[in-house]
Fold this protein.
Amino acid sequence: MAGKTLKPSQKAFLTLLMAEAREVTNSELTERYGISLTGEDSRALVEAKLATRRKVGRGLAHELTDEGWARCREELTAEYVKGTGPAVPALHALFGALDRYVKRSELSLPELFTASPAPVEAPKPEKAAAKPRAGGKKVDVEQRIRTAYAKLATAPQGWVSLADLRAALADVDRGAVDQALMTMAVHRDVVLVPEENQKNMSAEDRAAAIHIGGEDKHLLSIEAA
């Protein structure tokens, strides 16, 4: 597709958002990479509809749109600026290898990249991350998810809808469940995918989805330990 010409810095931020594969705040970018997406670079990506931007606390958060993922796919085979030292050609070579893998595996970029783990924030007193068990012990949300999945799955590594999973974890704060699912998504034994037949999805299934890698995920599979 014909798209707006991006500056090298804007292409770099586009690549960062692709690698993170989720909404990421500027505070996270600063902590992890020592940079933040602001000013002209932020406006250019948003105005080109390559990324969304919203206010989070006192800062900004960005995430790739579908158009942004498509532009990243184009950038895998795009020309690069020569004479800029070894870093840019090295990145260009890496993109070429990634392009060959994507074609060979018949995957889309959102399917290839899993969301990076979001930082774990301490729960606020008025909104705890999860309701405590009897005795006041802290809830291990990931273990609760794995236990609920084991009870709901009808076969080893079978698909369990997030709607059923959330119903089984009704006593756990949704934000805590989402945080745990985001963290688990990077594990090799955990797979989150969209429902293929979305025309017949219920409102509960849609409401239970979690947005990762630029798309809503509705089904969970966990490999038996």
